[in-house]
Write a structure and sequence with these properties.
Helix content is 45%, strand content 20%. The protein has 282 residues and is an alpha+beta fold. The protein has a six-stranded antiparallel beta sheet. It has a four-stranded antiparallel beta sheet with strand order 3-8-5-6, with no helix packed on it. Strand 5 and strand 6 form a beta hairpin.
């Protein structure tokens, strides 16, 4: 089995598992090390834990409780791919719900969870405009709501909460060139990552990750418009750790590549004239 860690934070770890085990391979006992939610991206497999057996297919979610032993089987087909979220005990407690919810074993393909699973998959593959830690928390919170049979009420933002959100945004903007994650920003204003995510989005209309990316893009646009630095230098100076990701993200936002934007800023008017002349979508 190939396992690639795509996110590793103190309270949340995300691993992309690609398994090529088939019916002829002997299964073996494994153990959950944390509160696990594994979204099945493709393929199928069997899961046995605590005397119960489940069959998972694309869109299903494997649910694991720390310390529980389990066995995965591939009696029907070879291989699967899962995006696994492992939550630390403190974070799982913040999300709410009784501990027994995490011994559900399996959640069948539900539209309410599949859309978040695909959003997480896109984020893990480097696409989309949402942080993998953020969508992981949303997936877990939605799982708890559905498993517990209740809906979580939208947070009410007090004056203190609004001040916290704004202070966090100012801090993110000031430090956007640094490696930032949800936990670090949340700790800055004394909130758990989940409560911070919900509060920030409620007050400011964007998630912390979206604001971070857009802050970096804003600064990149300013540099490209009024600076002689190379596109590579700009990408790294504003906080993008990968040049291709910067080019792709900037193009999605501006409608033109960073190089074309730079040329337009230096007087090449045809670039944005062509954009303005293009027919509107639909």
């Amino acid at each position: 089995m190939a396992a690639a860690t795509v996110l590793c934070e103190a309270s949340l770890q995300v691993v992309d598992y690609r398994c090529d085990v088939g019916p002829a391979d002997e299964p073996f006992v494994e153990r959950h090390d944390g509160f696990d939610l594994a979204y099945v991206r493709r393929g199928s497999f069997g899961y046995r834990a605590r005397g119960k057996s489940f069959d998972l297919i694309a869109g299903s979610i494997l649910v694991g409780h720390p310390g529980d032993e389990y066995v995965c089987t591939h009696d029907h087909a070879r291989g699967d791919q899962c995006l696994s979220f492992r939550f630390a005990p403190q974070l799982a407690e913040t999300l709410g719900g009784q501990s027994d919810l995490w011994r559900t074993g399996c959640v069948p393909p539900l539209s309410e969870l599949m859309v978040l699973g695909e959003l997480a998959s896109a984020a893990a593959d480097g696409g989309g405009d949402v942080g993998l830690d953020e969508v992981g928390l949303l997936l877990a919170a939605r799982f708890v709501e559905l498993a517990a049979g209740r809906e979580r009420k939208p947070p009410q933002a007090s004056a203190r909460d609004r001040r916290r959100a704004v202070e966090a945004a100012l801090w993110i903007d000031e430090h956007s060139h640094e490696p930032l994650d949800l936990g670090r920003a949340a700790a800055r204003v004394g909130l758990s990552p989940f409560h911070f995510l919900r509060l920030f989005a409620k007050v400011l209309g964007v998630t912390p990750h979206q604001y971070l990316v857009r802050s970096r893009l804003r600064q990149a646009a300013a540099m490209l418009a009024d600076d002689a630095r190379s596109i590579t230098d700009v990408a790294y100076d504003v906080g993008f750790g990968d040049l291709s990701n910067f080019v792709r993200t900037f193009h999605r936002a501006a409608g033109v590549s960073p190089r074309a934007f730079q040329r337009a800023a230096r007087g090449d008017r045809e670039i944005f004239q062509d954009r303005l002349a293009a027919p509107l979508p639909g």
